[in-house]
Amino acid sequence: MKKNATPVKENWSTKFKRILQTMAILLSIQGLITFSLFICEEALQTTTFGTWPAQDAGDWSLVLDGVDLLENINFGMKIINYSVGWIQPLAFFSYRSYSKATDYYIKGLKAKAFARAPQVFNSRKVEFTFEPQRMERYGDKIHYINRNIVVVGTELLSLQCGIKVSGIVRLAENGKTVFVEEAKMKLSKGALNGSN
Fold first, then answer.
1. Which key words are in the record (predicted)?
2. Are residues 45 and 107 in the same domain?
3. How far is CA 124 from its chain centroid?
4. Residue 130 falls inside a structural domain
5. pLDDT means per 10 residues in the chain (196 residues)?
6. CA-based diameter of the chain, in Å?
7. What pLDDT score was predicted for residue 41?
8. Whole-angstrom Cα distance, residue 162 to residue 141?
9. 98-145 pLDDT, tens per residue?
10. In a domain, 2, yes or no
């Protein structure tokens, strides 16, 4: 019959090995997450580079395809970063900043594409600042018009200032006139401050 055995204390080298094993596991997980974020970053850069020759060629439909791809990749990167990226805090803050910068690039690229070829946004929701040249009433609807863009709304706003518009783009039968329907409109900040 055995007597009660006293627990054997771990020696220093065994404790050190466990610490090293734990650190190795943590570093492996951090590396896996950071590498995934890095690949997303590279995909964003490659897509961004692809939008440049498309812009040079004036192929705004292709530019818009690039915008869609940028949005999808950036969304995936945000999911990875916000769900598990905090395990590597320095990478978390770096990739969060990169994602915010990508959001800004997307916003600017959409604005450029809409200014150059609003017709490629057919059936898409858009947001932009609009300065109407004239206004026409059609029943309870008001059409604010600036060349080939017609913003359809119900609110009576001044033609003397910029209007922030959010709505769905519909292409007219002539293929050139762009209607922004279901528009929500408000005066732009510059108009509220008295500057234009």
1. Membrane, Transmembrane, Transmembrane helix
2. yes
3. 15
4. yes
5. 61 85 86 93 98 98 98 98 93 97 98 94 91 91 89 83 88 83 72 43
6. 104
7. 98
8. 19
9. 999 999 999 999 999 999 999 999 999 999 888 899 999 999 998 999
10. no
Query: Is there a single domain that holds both residue 131 and residue 60?
Result: no
Task: Tell me the C-alpha distance between 26 and 23, whole Å.
Answer: 5
pLDDT at position 35 is 94
Q: How many independent structural domains does the chain possess?
A: 2
Say if CB 163 and CB 149 are below 8 A apart.
Answer: no
116, 133, 150 — which closes off a domain? 116
Q: Using the 3D structure, point to which of 96, 116, 136 is the last residue of a domain.
A: 116
DSSP 55-97: HHHT-HHHHHHHHHHHHHHHHHHHHHHHHHGGGSHHHHHHHHH
Evaluate whether 147 touches 133 at the Cβ level (below 8 Å).
yes
Is the whole-model pTM more than 0.85? no
CA distance 62 to 33: 31
Q: Are 166 and 126 in contact (CB under 8 A)?
A: yes
Lookup: tokens for 196: 């234009």
Residues 100 and 68 in one domain: yes
C-beta separation of 75 from 21 below 8 A: no
What is the C-alpha separation between 77 and 109, in angstroms, rounded? 19
- Which amino acid, 130? F
Beta bridge partners of 159: none
